[in-house]
Automatic annotation (TrEMBL), chains A, B:
Source organism per UniProt: Arabis alpina (Alpine rock-cress)
MF (Gene Ontology): glutathione binding; glutathione transferase activity
CDD domains: GST_C_Phi (cd03187), GST_N_Phi (cd03053)
Presence of the UniProt keyword Isomerase in the record: no
Keywords linked to the UniProt accession: Cytoplasm, Detoxification, Signal, Transferase
Gene Ontology terms: biological process: glutathione metabolic process; toxin catabolic process
Enzyme class: transferase
Source organism phylogeny: Eukaryota, Viridiplantae, Streptophyta, Embryophyta, Tracheophyta
The protein's name in its UniProt record: glutathione transferase
UniProt signal peptide: 1-19
């Protein structure tokens, strides 16, 4: 009988040693996940991984995400791509930029900056497409495409660096060229070629650095597609429809990279305006 | 004897259940921490928290960080503030921007963008001041001021949002005004008042939104000082020395916030040019 108890005790000991990792230890507090899920994890003594997966998958089956945006907007498409890469349902709410709805008081009460997209996850409201993208990729890390690394400090550092290179080196000239060469013609304005001629060399300088990087790396931050690549998509898509596409096509590694990232099904879907307007609430 | 073994077994079981959390489970792999530290953690079966602290504190006692920068540079000061908030030693390497050293081939081989700061943590080289700042705050999360939240998804989302609001709403007009009103006079150029008059209303619009936020929150992302506030410091410091300071002073909550963040000792030290030049290697 004593031996039996010892055996049972040791077995329990081994099992607990393997599996006991309180959910709070993974860096998420009780206030961050549904109470039922938090209690379930602690009571059942699941592994942290199992618990995380359980909370993430079951508690968020219908996340009830809301996305205020406009399907032609570059910044809206950035967030759409993340949602599609993660295969997440959401409720699209159209803010008609052509009608200037983003500057009306009813929308300014939602985002005082008067910009789309705006993302709502229950009582959390977020603006800025890159912040929304990172939030979704962090909260839903175990689902769909892994867009940001959470394990290796080196990879986190490198990815963050390339994300900020997009924000501060690529985006400023790319946005000016997108406005002049893609948006102006759409609204009946001519491009200001003085501005274009001043801006193109700035983008070329950035693309020269990208070319060197992409000779030795499939994507910017690593050999895998990450958020750093995704952030570039909306401006690149617009510019590839203008004479500025030669700046990308004349650089072989950049050209290969552009082809790879624009071919992603999530990006194609983000550009499909019918997919936005055809959506039923929480379904697509 | 049987009872004694049962007692010992149960005691061990409880102890292991409380303390066994393999280091790899906290999201850091063996390749990210020194091998000796990783093995120590797994052999000693410390708690994840203890192990994390051990690796972070002991393995990085002399981190050997290198910072290429210029003590008058706004972007260099952003990273300096993070290093001082975390009380971290580093080796400063001066890149004289007045002498144009950042555009010389020897520096372009370090950062092809020709910009400071550049940060080196052993074989990891990072550019972009905000990326460097986030890297340090993430790797050294357990040390000094807690600048970024790693536990609450809501807080991570809100902080990230305010960081990107700084990057995309505050920084563009603030940088233009800093250049025109602070840098131009330093190098013997007059401000272009057409540019100033076009840009000030853009910054005012942003500060109006900040004023509303700061009426109900001590700092931008929460009631605590975070990276989102820190990111604003370099531009604000320059602008407070120009006529543009009235844009901040005329808004009571913004004014209170500016006073609070510019009073931080880490920021004062980051602005102390003597502290940069007086540094011995790895000491200050």
């Amino acid at each position: 009988m004593g031996s039996f108890i010892v055996l049972v005790s040791f077995t329990l000991m081994i099992l607990m040693a393997i599996s006991y990792e309180p959910y709070s230890g993974m860096g998420v507090t009780a206030s961050d996940v549904p109470t039922s899920c938090y209690h379930y994890c602690n009571q059942k003594l699941e592994s942290r991984h199992q618990c995380y997966k359980h909370c993430d998958e079951s508690a968020h089956k219908d996340p009830g995400y809301k996305l205020y945006g406009y399907p032609y907007s570059a910044n809206t498409r950035r967030v759409l791509t993340v949602l599609y890469e993660k295969d997440l349902s959401f409720d699209p709410i159209t803010v008609d930029l052509r009608a200037g709805e983003q500057k009306k008081p009813s929308f300014l009460s939602i985002n005082p900056f008067g910009l789309v997209p705006v993302f709502e996850d229950k009582d959390l409201k977020l603006v800025e497409s890159r912040a929304i993208s990172q939030y979704i990729a962090t909260v839903r890390r175990s689902r769909g495409t892994q867009l940001v690394n959470h394990k290796s400090y080196k990879k986190i550092g490198t990815e963050t660096m390339w994300m900020y290179i997009e924000s501060f080196e690529f985006d400023p000239p790319a946005t000016i060229l997108t406005q002049q060469l893609a948006i102006n013609p759409l609204v009946g304005l001519k491009p200001d070629y003085k501005v274009v001629n001043e801006t193109e060399p700035k983008l070329e300088k950035v693309l020269d650095i990208y070319e060197e990087r992409l000779k030795n790396s499939s994507f910017l931050a690593s050999n895998n597609f990450t958020m750093a690549d995704l952030f570039h998509l909306p401006n690149i898509q617009y510019l590839m429809g203008t004479p500025a596409k030669r700046l990308f096509e004349s650089r072989p590694s950049v050209n290969r990279w552009v082809a790879a990232i624009t071919a992603r099904p999530a990006w194609k879907k983000a550009c499909d305006v019918k997919a936005w307007y055809g959506k039923k609430k929480n379904g697509y």
